[in-house]
Design brief:
alpha+beta; 8-stranded mixed sheet; 5-stranded antiparallel sheet; 14 helices; 19 strands; 30% helix; 21% strand
């Protein structure tokens, strides 16, 4: 073959090219191109090796480092030593009750002190402040449009309170309180300076009371309709809305409003008394207006363990922003207050939590008044449950007689050693049934009692509480009493 290639050069060139390509594909040594007789022996010797070898196998071997052998775990000891066990703490057993039932400990009344978070600026004499401020005007009626007699009676009750009247007018002067304060202040301004028909004042226009009812109805859906409602509930909602409208103000914002307004010194002192204007208070605190109509009460709890009173007292204070509610079952005011202040056994579903055993248990609860407000509102609960044919109880108005004095001593009624006296200034009355009726207001104005029945004003020169209210019929029943403290004491604490 070589001789032929030499003699015929083209054939030699073709042979060389074919042999090169063949050796490159098969990865044979190039020398086989020139020594074809070695092809057979080389192929037979290295066939298996060449066919099973990848290109990466031609890379020289890299010495592999020996892998570290894990250390064998330590052999366990022949014997496990005893580990001392820490004894669990045993709970201490509750102290055993005394052999004899002791008397229920009585908590002595605490001396009056300042309410927490009240600045010294508010410790002012309310009587002196009110003496320098305008007083409510003479008796003026309010025209009724639709079922608004309940709202008229509530407005008359609030207006006859000199503190409420001046506070609302001052807050309206500051531009606060929204539509509720604006509507109420509009009525107050007219009652102070009514349009005259000769010597007789004309009643306040009915549109004013309608605007107030709509303003309250926008916040309280209960009063958004044209139906008849409870005068007491409306007055409570009205005062609550006035308080809540100031919750977004900080103390610095309130102080800035007072300083920019043209207020007299008595008006500024009144704002300080109710807690609105407090120059020395923290600037970031929220405003909490207090008209002084709360009642500060202390509850004393005596747990009963093993059937006997446990001599531990758990007392706490409660500050109320609603009238003092009393049942009319007792027939008179003093007996109703005495019943409300007597100790009561709370057992069964009414059991209270006792920290001595960390569980609920029967408890003796006693309530006492620590302080009374300058204006005491008493809410008479004239409702009782009557059985029906279906077995479901039905609320009925209690028209039985309930007597109350025109003046009383707080020490005898509330067991307070203050010597304070309260004088009746007005009452909201209802005639009718629990489903409906009519609301009126009876108030003492300039030393004489008047009946304010919507737009009608009637003088009562021979007024007698004993013969007018609670006569056992649906003709007239007192529903809420308004007493004024006659002593000149500092604001409630």
């Amino acid at each position: 073959m070589i001789v032929v290639c030499i003699i015929v050069p083209p054939l030699g060139l073709i042979y060389a090219i074919v042999t090169f390509v063949y050796c490159w594909i098969k990865r044979y040594p190039i020398r086989l191109m020139f020594f074809p007789f070695m092809h057979r022996a080389f192929f037979l010797e290295n066939q298996a090796k060449l066919e099973n070898t990848s290109p990466l196998d031609t890379i020289p071997d890299v010495p592999q480092l020996p892998k570290p052998q894990p250390e064998p775990p330590p052999s366990p000891p022949d014997t496990i030593p005893d580990v001392p066990q820490v004894p669990k703490p045993q709970p201490e057993p509750p102290p055993s009750p005394p052999d004899t039932i002791p008397d229920v400990p009585q908590v002595p009344p605490s001396p009056p002190g300042p309410i927490p978070n009240v600045s010294p600026e508010s410790q002012l004499n309310l009587g002196s402040i009110l003496d320098a401020l305008p007083k409510p005007g003479g008796p003026v009626g309010i025209q009724r449009i639709g079922n608004t007699c309940y709202a008229i009676a509530a407005v008359q009750c609030i207006y006859r309170n000199q503190l409420y009247m001046n506070a609302v007018l001052i807050l309206d002067k500051l531009g606060l309180g929204g539509d509720v304060v604006t509507s109420l202040a509009t009525i107050f301004k007219y009652l102070n300076n009514p349009n005259m028909d000769g010597t007789t004042p004309r009643p306040c226009p009915g549109e004013f009371i309608q605007n107030l009812r709509r303003a309250v109805g926008r916040h309280e859906s209960t009063f958004a309709d044209e139906n008849q409602h409870d005068c007491r509930e409306f007055s409570i909602s009205l005062l609550d809305l006035i308080r809540e409208s100031f919750g977004a103000l900080t103390q610095s914002e309130a102080n800035a409003l007072v300083e920019r307004a043209s207020l007299t010194q008595p008006e500024i002192d009144l704002l300080r008394w109710v807690g609105f204007y407090r120059p020395n208070a923290h600037a970031g605190t929220r405003i909490c207006v207090d008209f002084g109509d709360y009642t500060l009460v202390r509850y004393c709890h005596t747990p009963i363990l093993g059937g006997q009173p446990y001599p531990i007292l758990n007392s706490y204070l409660e500050q109320r922003d609603v009238p003092y509610a009393l049942s009319t079952k007792e027939g008179n005011l003093q007996a109703a207050i005495k019943r409300d202040l007597q100790q009561v056994l709370m057992d069964g579903d009414n059991s209270l939590y006792c920290p001595a055993i960390a569980d609920v248990c029967p408890t003796i609860q006693k309530k006492e008044f620590i302080d009374l407000p300058p204006f005491l509102r008493i809410y008479l609960k004239r409702h009782r449950k009557e059985p029906t044919k279906t077995g479901e109880p039905n609320l009925q108005k209690d028209n039985r007689r309930f007597s109350f004095p025109s003046c009383f001593d707080a020490s005898s009624f509330f067991n307070l050693n203050s010597g304070e006296h309260y004088t009746l200034q007005g009452t909201s009355c209802h005639c009718g049934t629990d489903d409906g009726g009519h609301w009126t207001f009876y108030g003492k104005i300039n030393g004489m009692w008047y009946c304010l029945n919507d737009s009608f004003v009637t003088a009562l020169p021979n007024f007698s509480i004993e013969t007018l209210f609670g006569d056992g019929t649906t003709k007239m029943n007192a529903m809420e009493l308004f007493y004024t403290r006659t002593s000149s004491d500092p604001p409630p604490s």
